[in-house]
Amino acid sequence: MPSGLRSSLPISRRGFLHAASSALALWGLPSAAQPRSPGTDTTPIAVAQVVDMSANLQDVGRDFLVGSQAAWQGINAAGGVQGRPVRHLSFVTDGSAQGTRDAWQRIEATANCVVLSGCVGDAATRTLTGLQAKSPSGATLAQVAPWVQAEDTYPDSSAVFGIFPGYREQMAHALSSLSSVGVREIGVAFSHARQRDAALPAVEQAAATLGLKLRSLPAPGQAPSSAERQAEQTQAIVLFVGGTPELHAFAQRLPAQPGGHRYIITLADVNLQVLGQMGGVPRHSSVIATQAVPLLTSSTGVVRAYRQALARYYDEPPSPQGLAGFVAARYTAAVLSGMRMGITRASVLQALRERKDTDVDGFMVRCEGAERRSGYVTQTMLSADGRLIG
C-alpha cells in the first residue's frame, strides 16, 4: 500500500469501520501522482469523492472507496489523464448533512477540482446537489457515477450523471426472474419505516408491471398487523430492501417454514461477503442479491483490471461494491481523457451533458446526453451453507 494512505485508510475492515463509526471523521486522501514528464502540461487535476460511512452504508462505502482509490492509483501509474496526474480527494462522512456540508466547503475551495466522482449514498448526493444550487460561486461540479438507489429522482438538470441502475431496474430484474418461473406472489420487507416510505412506490411499480402480488412483512419497531404476521410465516420468497446489517438481523428473526426453504431477494447495497462474515443466514434460508456490475468471476477486462489493482495496492478481497467503485473512477477518467477542450468544471459538465455510449474495458455505459439509457444488472447467491454462487 502506498505510504501516503497507510495512516488514513487501514487495510483491516474491522479497524476501518471502528474508526469511521467512532470518530465520525472527515478527511481528504490525495493519491500518489505520476512523475512529471518534461514538455507536457503536468498541472494536477483534482477529483473529489464524498462517501457516506453511516451505519447503513459502512460496508458499501468502504469497499466502494477502496475500489475507486485502486483505480486512481492505476490511472496515475499509467500516466494520469491526458498526461496530467489526478489528485484523488476522498471525504468520508458520518452521513449527516453537516458532514456533507463540511466536505463541500473544502471541495469548493479546491480550485483545480473539476468533478465529483463516485460519491456514495442518496443523502450525500441530494445534499451536494442542494449545496451547489445555493453556492455563491455558481461553478457547478458534475456528480459522475454516484452510488445511489433513487437515481430517477434526479432531473437531467441536476448535474448528476449516473451509470449504475437504481432500485427500479434492480427490482425489475430480480422480480422478472421470479415471474418467469411461475411465481405470482412474494413478501416484501424493509430495513426501517423510512426505507419503506422511500422505496415502496418503486417496488409496487415493478411488481405491478410483472403481475406479482406483494405481501408486506412487519417493519422493525412497529406493531405488525395480522396480515403482516401471516406473510412472515407463509411467504417462501421475500424481497428485502436495506443494508447488510439490517438483512442479517432480519434473516435471524424470520421464522422457519416447516418443511420448506425460504429465499430472500436483496438489492445491490447488500455485501454478501460481509453477510457471510457476520454468520450468514439460518440454514432454512438463502439470499440472492442483485449486482450492478459483472460477477467477480467474469473474464471481462474491467474485472481483471480491478482484481489486479486490488492485489497490487491493497490486501483486500474483491467485492461487487469495490468493483463498482473501480468502474466509477475508470468511467470518470474515460470522460476526462476524451475531452478535446481544457478540463475545467464547466467544460466537464458540458461534456457529460453531451455524453455517448462508453466502453469501460468491457463494461458498457449506454447514455444519450445526461440520460442513462440502460443499466447492467445480474445476480449472485449466498446459499444456506455459506457458499457464494454466481
Automatic annotation (TrEMBL):
PROSITE patterns noted in UniProt: TAT (PS51318)
Pfam entry (one): Peripla_BP_6
Signal sequence, renumbered to the chain: none
Annotated ranges, domain Leucine-binding protein: 44-371
InterPro entries assigned: Leu-bd, Peripla_BP_I, TAT_signal
Keywords (A to Z) from UniProt: Signal
Database matches in PANTHER family: BLR6548 PROTEIN
Family to which this protein belongs: Belongs to the leucine-binding protein family.
Protein name per the record: Twin-arginine translocation pathway signal protein
